[in-house]
């Protein structure tokens, strides 16, 4: 029977666990949030689009090794305990992040720069592979069974809040230092700052006690001597590992990384939105949606975990393409040219037709205002394509700043995507904990979680961007990857998963 703690104590457990996990997610995600800038630092100046793809590949490498971290640290967690294992993962993650902030650029050390960053990303991935399972297991083993979904859902907020924190610190740093300084060396500040956050978290975690369930197991001499063998050689347990992966975490992973990371990449790199604008949109969407992790976690205690998670996958399958098509349409050059007002920090800033013949753009003179950050410069553009309504001027509109109505429309679309994330992610910690016995829980739940999220989910930005770059592809082609994975998981989950809630986790 789990030890039912007073409410103030259980929230201390949640707070201590969540803070460290949030900081680890922050450390892991600042790299992805700065992929474009880091790409320019790690690769030759003439690398072009391949710099972004190569940087996303390094980012993805951290996800690929997460399952190995789950095996290594899951085994340690089931052998020596939850507390000390995720103390170790926190130190590894924080140290690696700090060192990434110190790596010289390609101009200084050549290809040694991306190689060193790749090594540190691999260490980050291994550490994160051990962190989540420990934190989720630790909280679940303190929580009463009829509120396990509610209490573990607080841990679920940390991944999104870590992204929120990383975006917030990046935007603040850039605004303080200025765009040029930030691109030069200021991007390192968020990496270096993590060492302070990690230090605070280590201090708090050192004061934590071991999980009562694991302590009881250890006193009774029932700790697994070989967690890997007990997890994967046992046919019934291995079946649950596979069901958890293909019926739940695989689909959950692609929904998570599409709604947050690919959305950010798409807005910045495909739609060419302003750096701050793309991040403000995501920050607002996260702020509005984050409470729903707890809402759906608590609801899963009443109605079960399965159908909430699968509904989130289904809605993603249905709505992803319409949402991203809207992003494209509303930021297209044609659409911008038809608007009387739009902004861009590098290129076209404001369009004001000098005649009222809005149905015949060919004969209009158009006043264009350019901005270099210190003010607007007026120029005249005489040639306009009447057939498509696109300004005939060299280059492509980039760093677009959206009109307020469109900005908030985009916030709403990001909010909806993150709402789907809360549906698939809010209940999943309780769902995974309830599948496996205490003595091998850390190992058994960590592996499917990190394959589903680290491999299938974490590769979404890289694979989707790569697919969209193929000859004959459209900007929406990359969405077929998360849609296909979510659809497969939906079918398997619908057929084979049971609708668990309030399961005993004492065995």
TrEMBL record:
Origin: domain of life: Bacteria
Transmembrane segments: 21-43, 49-72, 84-103, 109-129, 150-173, 185-204, 240-259, 279-300, 307-324, 410-435, 447-467, 479-497
GO molecular function terms noted in the UniProt entry: transmembrane transporter activity
Domain Major facilitator superfamily (MFS) profile: 13-501
Topology within the bilayer: Multi-pass membrane protein
Gene Ontology CC terms: plasma membrane
Keyword Transport included in the entry's annotation: yes
Protein name: MFS transporter
Organism: Pedobacter jejuensis
């Amino acid at each position: 029977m789990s030890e039912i703690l007073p409410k103030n104590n259980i929230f201390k457990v949640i707070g201590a666990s969540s803070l460290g996990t949030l900081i680890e997610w922050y450390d892991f995600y600042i790299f992805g949030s700065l992929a474009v800038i880091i790409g320019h630092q790690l690769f030759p100046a003439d690398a072009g689009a391949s710099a972004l793809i190569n940087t996303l590949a390094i980012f993805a490498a951290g996800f690929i090794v997460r399952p190995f971290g789950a095996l290594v640290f899951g085994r340690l967690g089931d052998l020596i305990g939850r507390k000390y294992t995720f103390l170790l993962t926190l130190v590894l993650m924080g140290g690696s992040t700090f060192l990434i902030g110190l790596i010289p650029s390609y101009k200084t050390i050549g290809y040694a720069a991306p190689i060193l960053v790749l090594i540190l990303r691999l260490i980050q991935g291994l550490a994160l592979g051990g962190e989540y399972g420990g934190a989720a297991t630790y909280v679940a083993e303190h929580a009463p069974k009829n509120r396990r979904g509610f209490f573990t859902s607080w841990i679920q907020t940390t991944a999104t809040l870590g992204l929120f924190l990383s975006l917030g610190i990046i935007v603040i740093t850039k605004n303080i230092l200025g765009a040029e300084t930030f691109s030069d060396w200021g991007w390192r500040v968020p990496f270096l700052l993590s060492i302070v956050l990690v230090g605070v978290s280590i201090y708090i975690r050192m004061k934590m006690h071991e999980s009562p369930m694991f302590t009881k197991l250890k006193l009774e001499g029932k700790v697994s001597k070989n967690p890997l063998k007990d997890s994967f050689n046992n046919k019934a347990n291995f079946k649950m590992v596979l069901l958890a992966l293909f019926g739940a975490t695989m689909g959950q992973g692609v929904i998570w990384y599409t709604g947050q990371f690919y959305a950010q990449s798409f807005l910045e790199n495909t739609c060419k939105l302003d750096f701050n604008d793309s991040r403000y949109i995501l920050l607002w969407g996260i702020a509005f949606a984050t409470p729903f992790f707890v809402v759906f976690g608590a609801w899963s205690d009443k109605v079960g975990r399965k159908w909430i998670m699968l509904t989130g996958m289904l809605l993603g399958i249905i709505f992803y393409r319409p949402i991203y098509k809207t992003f494209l349409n509303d930021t297209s050059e044609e659409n911008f040219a038809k608007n009387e007002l739009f902004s861009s920090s590098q290129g076209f800033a404001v369009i004001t037709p000098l005649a009222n013949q809005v149905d015949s753009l060919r004969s209009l003179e158009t006043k264009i205002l350019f901005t270099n950050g210190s003010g607007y410069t007026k120029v005249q553009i005489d040639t306009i394509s009447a057939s498509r309504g696109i300004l005939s001027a060299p280059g492509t509109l980039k760093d677009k700043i959206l009109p307020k109505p469109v900005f908030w429309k985009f916030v709403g679309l990001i909010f909806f995507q993150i709402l789907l994330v809360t549906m698939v992610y809010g209940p999943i910690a309780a769902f995974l904990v309830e599948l496996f016995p205490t003595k091998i829980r850390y190992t058994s739940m960590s592996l499917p979680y990190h394959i589903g999220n680290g491999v299938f989910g974490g590769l979404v930005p890289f694979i989707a961007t790569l697919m969209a770059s193929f000859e004959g592809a459209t900007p929406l082609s990359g969405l077929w990857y998360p849609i296909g994975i979510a659809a497969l998981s939906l079918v398997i989950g619908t057929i084979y998963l049971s609708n668990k809630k309030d399961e005993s986790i004492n065995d």
